[in-house]
């Protein structure tokens, strides 16, 4: 099939590369010329494991093309995926400016029937809205269907190639058939392609992310209670996850959830519910618990060092909102660093891939933040280590070296990746989350 993907970001590039990998001809469009030029030179603008290999293979085979021209891509394609960003507005509703502009550009470029697929996470009812935006700009027939994306940054390629399920929201048999053919290579192990009406498909995406965010916030609230009553959230978690009704995923206490999806999608669901005057107390509580949790690690630091941190330097390991990505959107590290910096501390950070994006967001706060070239450099003369993102390389570090580089052997473990007893035995003051 011939496919255009409008928006070549974390979702669009992965989707485009995976569709091309199964033999389709794919045109990835972005209105950021620097991004497209880089991709044409074979440079991948984001960090996503496995993506570079796919992109290079399909580019070499002339199945994957990059362009800034929506017209070129739409003229050549039967199916158009919308994968532009839908970032949150200050009131929590998604900003649909990019989707609206892209819809008009696609409509203008049509030269016959086209199937338009909303892959961006969009408010419930957007399939109709996109159709209304397009109608004035084309005389050709088209369908708009919903196909929400469930990939996780860090494992996006694997998730796309082997999805748990594919959701297709359409009232048309013909559209469902086209989409089923397109996705058939990805569900050969029997994972379902679920057909539903477009509203339910749009809602499914928000439901999943809000539910996962709620699980995390539930564990984070429990972890704070554990700290007061003297329990260990890690043991509680194990006791819970062995119950098949609960399952084992997204039940880790930590520094709060971040990223481009959970915070935004939770807010968007709340905004929709408010418009329809339906109470969403659970989701709203998950959101406020998360805002509290992002600051919780700092309360551990001030409990140990006091509230005046002017003479203190802290090493921060991990900046990205989770491992295996360079995405800094809504990353808890930003809140933690801002809070510590606000109390006068100097910060030395290390992240294997996200430092450049972090610098774009935070800068150096007047030389208050240093971005180091290695994890151990960040420790030099620091008063404590804070582990904020659980990159694999932080899991089994040289604790002897850590101890010799730090001014004081103090570790705040925001992801509970270390064994408290072992660290205490080695002479560290250790503080995890909820233990
Ligand atoms: N990132 C994720 O993990 C994830 C997962 C599932 C769903 N989603 C959803 O997918 C959508 C895209 O997310 P993302 O993280 O890939 O965003 P992103 O910001 O990484 O990428 C969006 C891209 O669209 C481009 N763009 C904007 N307007 C355009 C236009 N008119 N024409 C061409 N290109 C245009 C931007 O330049 C940018 O490169 C969002 O709605 C998001 O909620 C994201």
Short description:
This protein has helices at residues 10-21, 33-40, 51-60, 70-76, 97-109, 126-134, 156-161, 173-183, 198-229, 233-241, 262-275, 281-305, 332-342, 355-362, 375-379, 399-405, 420-425; strands spanning 2-6, 25-29, 64-67, 79-82, 114-118, 142-146, 166-169, 193-196, 313-317, 346-350, 369-371, 384-387, 410-413, 429-431. It is α/β, with parallel strands linked by helices and 435 residues long. The radius of gyration is 23 Å and the shape is globular.
| CA-atom Rg in angstroms | 23 Å
Task: State the CATH superfamily name of the largest domain.
Answer: NAD(P)-binding Rossmann-like Domain
Which CATH C-level class of the largest domain is it?
Alpha Beta
Mean pLDDT: 97
Q: Strand tally, please?
A: 14
CATH topology of the largest domain: Rossmann fold
pLDDT < 50 stretches: none
Strand order of the largest sheet: 3-2-1-4-5-6
Number of domain modules: 2
* Number of H/I helices: 17
Task: Give the amount of beta strand, in percent.
Answer: 5-15%
* Terminus-to-terminus distance: 53 Å
Bound molecules: nicotinamide-adenine-dinucleotide
- CATH architecture label of the largest domain: 3-Layer(aba) Sandwich
How is the biggest beta sheet arranged? 6 strands, parallel
The backbone outline, from C-alpha atoms, is globular
Secondary structure category: alpha/beta
| Quaternary structure annotation | single chain
Report what the structure shows:
With 435 residues, the chain is α/β, with parallel strands linked by helices. It has 2 domains: 2-196, Rossmann fold; 211-431, 3-Layer(aba) Sandwich (Rossmann fold), CATH 3.40.50. It is 44% helix and 14% strand. It is built from 17 helices and 14 strands. Strands 3-2-1-4-5-6 form a 6-stranded parallel β-sheet, sandwiched between helices. Helix 9 (198-229) crosses helix 11 and helix 12 (281-305) packs across helix 13. The mean pLDDT is 97. Bound molecules: nicotinamide-adenine-dinucleotide (NAD). Nicotinamide-adenine-dinucleotide binds at residues 6-12, 29-32, 35, 70, 83-86, 98, 101-102, 105, 120-121, 149, 151, 153, 260-261.
């Amino acid at each position: 099939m011939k496919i255009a993907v409008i928006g070549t970001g974390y979702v669009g590039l992965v989707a485009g590369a995976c569709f091309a990998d199964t033999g389709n001809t794919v045109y990835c469009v972005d209105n950021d010329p620097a991004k497209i030029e880089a991709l044409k030179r074979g440079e991948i603008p984001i960090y996503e494991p496995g993506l570079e290999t796919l992109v290079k293979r399909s580019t070499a085979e002339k199945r994957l093309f990059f362009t800034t021209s929506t017209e070129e891509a739409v003229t050549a394609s039967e199916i158009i995926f919308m994968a532009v960003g839908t970032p949150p507005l200050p009131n929590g509703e998604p900003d649909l400016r990019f989707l609206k502009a892209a819809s008009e550009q696609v409509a203008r470029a049509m030269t016959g029937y086209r199937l338009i697929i909303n892959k961006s996470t969009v408010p419930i009812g957007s399939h109709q809205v996109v159709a209304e935006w397009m109608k004035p700009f084309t005389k050709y027939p088209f369908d708009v269907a919903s196909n929400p994306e469930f990939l996780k940054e860090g494992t996006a390629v694997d998730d796309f190639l082997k999805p748990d399920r594919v959701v297709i929201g359409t009232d048309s048999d013909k559209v469902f058939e086209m989409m089923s053919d397109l996705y058939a290579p990805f569900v050969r192990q029997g994972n379902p392609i679920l057909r539903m009406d477009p509203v339910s498909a749009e809602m499914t995406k928000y439901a999943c992310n809000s539910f996962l965010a709620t699980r995390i916030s539930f564990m984070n609230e429990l972890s704070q209670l554990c700290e007061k009553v003297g329990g260990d959230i890690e043991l509680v978690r194990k006791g819970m996850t062995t119950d098949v009704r609960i399952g084992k995923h997204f039940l880790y206490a930590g520094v709060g959830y971040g990223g481009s999806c959970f915070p935004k999608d939770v807010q968007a669901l709340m905004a929709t519910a408010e418009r329809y005057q339906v109470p969403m107390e659970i989701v709203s509580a998950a959101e406020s618990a998360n805002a509290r949790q992002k600051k919780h690690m700092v309360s551990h630091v001030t409990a140990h060092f006091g509230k005046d941190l002017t003479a203190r330097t802290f090493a921060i390991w991990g900046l990205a909102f989770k491992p295996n990505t360079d995405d800094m959107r809504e990353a808890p590290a930003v809140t933690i660093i801002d809070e510590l910096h606000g109390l006068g501390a100097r910060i030395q950070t290390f992240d294997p891939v996200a430092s450049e994006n972090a610098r774009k967001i935070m800068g150096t706060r007047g030389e208050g933040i240093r971005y180091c070239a290695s994890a151990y450099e960040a420790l030099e003369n620091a008063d404590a280590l804070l582990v904020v993102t659980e990159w694999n390389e932080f899991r089994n570090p040289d604790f002897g070296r850590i101890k010799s580089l730090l001014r004081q052997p103090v570790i705040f473990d925001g992801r509970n990746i270390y064994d408290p007893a072992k660290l205490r035995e080695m002479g560290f003051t250790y503080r995890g989350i909820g233990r």
